[in-house]
Specification:
By secondary structure, the protein is α/β, with parallel strands linked by helices. The protein contains 17 helices and 28 strands. It binds alpha-D-galactopyranose.
Length: 684
């Protein structure tokens, strides 16, 4: 078995399959499921995610018989199991026995069962019950031959504001701040007569008369992430204590489920896993798949990770009601694999006959296996099997070589969700996504990095927005530039320290010296308003959301505002610092403008594209491997292209030296020993 030290599943093949809920079906269907799974090339089923009510029908009374038969049936058919602990969905008896373990909203309303995820993560009864069921499962199945990995819980993210949360929050605050004086300083409680004189008075940010204290709100989000991580650790440790050595994961959810600070979580997981649903049915969905995959690989420090869920051809989740054609399902799956996933798993194997997600598709749709989509999934299963060799990671564990990184931090997102910021249009996620999208269109491989990470491997680091910058982050950004890196900073970055206290003397406070600028005034724009810039790379540029009255303090002016109230004043700057440079845009540049600015800096910094000149929306991604590297060419366009260069087609064995066609909406994967030197161009 090949395994990157401490990262990923110990597997030398790619996983294919998805969530499997046999408890929804009579047993005779299970046998048919296995036959169909074999026909579709499925080798992994995620079992037990929502099975608590069946596994423990009464408190402390367990019924594992049905799960024994499921695992044995799957194993007999050669299907591995990702076994979940069912703690995302406590059964109704749990509510009856422990009403205090239900979550309470900020408005004081206690939820009840009848859906899922109705738990108060800090409630002792919930934690004890979770540990107990995890331990029982591990005792029983810890060495089951079908077991591939443990899937603890499902998408942690239920937030509780009740009494148990309040007590745990106070304990967390005592550890973080040490004393009430320090908490009062950090939370700036001199404002609005909020000074605390007793820990008992400190509460989660519940509904109050007007605005909640921002320090309290931020600390509560930090606490919730840490508290859920503790709950995860307890289950993981219970599994380990029961003697199971199978890798343990829990599935992160992106892009909207922003309750976790993923960097601190990912080091606690044996394998980072991700549930990812496209946020648009439009062409931009392809960039979104890349975004999720690049994040997951980065959370895994560049190593392997697992795509635990994606939708099949249809999804009914609000905002994601999308029909995906099967060609897109294939290309998206390959995009995740190219960027380091150890498999392509779906939600879900069989579309349910009823229930709240009855219209969420499956590999086996309601129409059954005699369907175009099932046949397409079976074809994809054969492709995933043929690509098995890519699973073995290179010795250094880094699957994708990127010269460009984008800073990501949950706290940056949380900070822009506060009310009463200078603009309601500030959107952290949109800024990060726009930056990644622009780099995708420019053909650069991208890593994400934590603010305090060692950035020395990169030539360019982008900070789309990071309101609060701590000492470690500041030191890391400074060292990066001094050693020759190019830093690109966009607005609403560096204005505050980690307590969200604005740095006095001029924005962007903590980064003022490094960027060589001083901002005196903020000029937020209305939603529809645009500002024009002149003198930038490639001529006129357009900005949105934000503008600033800025004076250089050592930086050179690259572009100026043209027209409007800031007419003629500096808009984009470049400051030489050490062996590198720090670039600043004081507005959020529109798509095309952002691309031009990034392109200019990336070229100045000598950042390398995977395939120079690859025409978007064709993407080329190189996945490095133990035995060979693989170039994935995904043609999201409606026109055929040609790929040429070192390598042979993995499926057909054809040599790509003289060029091979890539059909419209099609793809190719080349097995290659080279790292550069390919061309992708119009087929004509
Ligand atoms: C999530 C959950 C699944 C299911 C899907 C539907 O990611 O993990 O249980 O609800 O969404 O899209």
């Amino acid at each position: 078995m090949t395994r990157t030290p401490d990262r990923g599943l110990p597997t030398d093949r790619l996983l294919y399959g998805g969530d499997y809920n046999p408890e929804q079906w009579p047993e005779e269907v299970w046998k048919e499921d296995v036959v169909l799974m074999q026909r579709a090339g499925v080798n992994a089923a995620t079992v037990g995610v929502f099975s608590w009510a069946l596994l423990e029908p009464e408190e402390g009374v367990y019924d594992f018989g049905w799960l024994d038969r499921v695992l044995d049936t799957l194993h007999a058919g050669g299907i591995g199991v990702v076994l979940a602990t069912p703690t995302a969905s406590p059964p109704p008896w749990f509510t009856r026995a422990h009403p205090d373990a239900l979550p309470v909203g900020p408005d004081g309303v206690r939820l009840t069962h009848g859906s899922r995820d109705t738990y108060a993560v800090s409630a002792p009864a919930y934690r004890a019950a979770s540990r107990a069921i995890a331990e029982r499962l591990a005792e029983r199945y810890g060495d089951h031959p079908a077991l591939l990995a443990w899937h603890v819980h499902n998408e942690y993210g239920t937030i509780d504001h009740g009494e148990h949360a309040a007590a745990a929050f106070r304990r967390w605050l005592q550890r973080r701040h040490g004393s009430l004086d320090e908490l009062n300083r950090s939370w700036y409680t001199a404002f609005w007569s909020q000074r605390y004189t007793s820990w008992e008075d400190v509460l989660p940010p519940r509904r109050t008369q007007y605005l909640v204290n921002p320090g309290q709100a931020m600390d509560f989000r930090r606490f919730c992430s840490d508290e859920m991580l503790d709950a995860f650790r307890e289950q993981r440790d219970a599994i380990r204590a029961a003697g199971s050595s199978a890798p343990v994961t829990t599935n992160f959810m992106l892009p909207t489920w922003n309750h976790l600070e993923q960097w601190s979580w990912s080091d606690e997981l044996d394998v980072v896993s991700l549930d990812h649903y496209l946020d648009t049915v439009g062409p931009d969905g392809e960039t979104h798949a890349a975004y999720g995959a690049d994040l997951a690989r980065s959370f895994s420090h560049g190593g392997p990770w697992l795509l635990m869920e994606q939708s099949t051809t249809s999804s009914t989740v609000a905002g994601r009601r999308a029909h995906k054609d099967v060609e897109r399902v294939v290309r998206n799956s390959l995009s995740y694999l190219a960027r380091g996933s150890q498999g392509a798993l779906f939600f879900q194997w069989r579309a349910p006959a009823a229930g709240s997600e009855a219209w969420h598709g499956g590999i086996v749709p309601h129409t059954g296996e005699d369907s175009r989509s099932f046949r397409a999934f079976a074809d994809l299963g054969r492709v995933v099997a043929a690509l098995g060799e890519v699973a073995a990671p290179p010795a250094d564990g880094r699957l994708v070589e990127a010269d460009v990184a984008v800073l990501w931090h949950a706290e940056g997102w949380w900070a822009t969700e506060a009310p009463q910021l200078p603009s309601d249009e500030l959107d952290y996620s949109a800024a990060v996504r726009a930056t990644h999208r622009a780099l995708w269109h420019e053909g650069y491989a991208v890593d994400f990095a934590a603010p305090d990470a060692d950035l020395s491997r990169y030539r360019v680091v982008c900070v789309p927005s990071l309101f609060a910058v701590g000492d470690a982050a500041l030191a890391s950004l400074r060292a990066f530039v001094e050693r020759g890196g190019h830093l690109l900073v966009q607005p609403f970055t560096g204005y505050a320290d980690e307590d969200l206290h604005v740095v006095p003397g001029g924005y962007p406070g903590r980064l003022r010296d490094l960027l060589g600028v001083r901002v005196q005034e903020l000029h937020p724009l209305d939603a529809a308003e645009r500002v024009q810039l002149s003198g930038g790379p490639g001529g006129e540029l357009t900005g949105r959301v934000w503008s600033e009255l800025l004076e250089p303090e050592g930086a050179e002016v690259v572009a100026r505002y043209a027209g409007g109230e800031l007419d003629g004043s500096p808009a984009i700057t470049r400051a030489a610092a050490g062996a590198g440079a720090a670039h600043y845009a004081s507005t959020f540049l529109d798509g095309g403008s952002l691309r031009r600015w990034l392109r200019g800096v990336c070229e100045e910094a000598g950042a390398r594209r995977t395939v120079e000149g690859c025409p978007p929306p064709v993407e080329a991604v190189l996945r490095r491997g133990a035995h060979a590297d693989h170039l994935f060419v995904l043609n999201h366009s409606g026109d055929a292209v040609r790929v040429s260069g070192p390598g042979t087609d993995v499926l057909s064995g054809e040599d790509a030296g003289e060029g091979l066609p890539v059909a419209a909406r099609g793809w190719r994967v080349l097995r290659t020993g080279g790292r550069r030197g390919w061309r992708v161009e119009a087929a004509g």
